[in-house]
Amino acid sequence: MQFPHTPLPAQLPLFEVFMAQPMAPAIKEVLDAPWSAEPEVFSELSLRGAAGNCLNLLAPMLRELSEQQDDRWLTLIAPPASLTQSWLREAGLNRERILLLQPNGNKSALQLTCEALRLGRSHTVVSWINPLTAGARQQLVSAARTGHGQSLNIRLG
User: Fold this and answer.
1) What are 33-77's pLDDT values in tens digits?
2) CA 118/CA 52 separation, integer angstroms
3) Collapsed DSSP state (helix, strand, coil) of residue 138
4) What CA–CA distance (Å, rounded) separates 32 from 27?
5) What is the 3-state secondary structure (H, E, C) of 76-97?
6) For the chain, which has fewer Cβ within 10 Å, the N-terminal or C-terminal residue?
7) Where are the domains of the chain?
8) HEC string of 11-49?
9) What NCBIfam families would the database entry show (predicted)?
10) How many helices and strands (H and E) does the chain possess?
């Protein structure tokens, strides 16, 4: 048995579809805008899955940060309980260049992170603050600029 053939509408190749339409003004402005000379001081990474898998994904990035040629520290604030000294060793991180800090009753993770950033003794301060409000993010950006460092917040889901 044969079925009647219904012709499909013609399709434009992927890039021709985009080229056929004029670029939206907002996109054109972004593309034409000059690059900012000021580097971003705040980044956020969201990981979901088993804790062990998330740590395995973080290991190479943290290893690279721990081996920076900067004389300052890599500071880890409020990491998950599974990120231990033995995990740092097994992951190959340079533990001589890492400060591992936990918040206490006097200071929250946000306050501790802002203080570490403002002091400028760390090239990168990695925090595990979740949720991170827009106001808290702005505090981290301001503190990172003051201390000439980088802030990286990791959200584990």
Assistant:
1) 666 556 799 999 999 998 889 999 999 999 999 999 989 999 999
2) 31
3) helix
4) 9
5) EECCCCCCCHHHHHHCCCCHHH
6) N
7) 73-157
8) CCCHHHHHHHCCCCHHHHHHHHCCCCCCCCCEEEEEECC
9) SOS_SulA_aeru (NF041583)
10) 6, 5
Measured distance between the N- and C-terminal CA atoms of the chain, rounded to whole angstroms: 53
Architecture of domain 73-157: 3-Layer(aba) Sandwich (3.40)
CB atoms inside a 10 Å sphere around CB 114: 24
List pLDDT tens digits, range 116-146: 999 999 999 999 999 999 999 999 999 999 9
Q: Any idea which residue has 């990168």 for tokens?
A: 124
Instruction: Give the C-alpha separation, 71 to 68, whole Å.
Output: 8
The model's pTM is: 0.76
Q: Which amino acid is at 147?
A: G
Q: What's the average model confidence in pLDDT over 2-11?
A: 58
How distant is the alpha carbon of residue 86 from its chain centre?
Answer: 24
d(CA 108, CA 66): 24
What is the rounded distance in angstroms from the CA atom of residue 157 to the CA atom of residue 65?
23
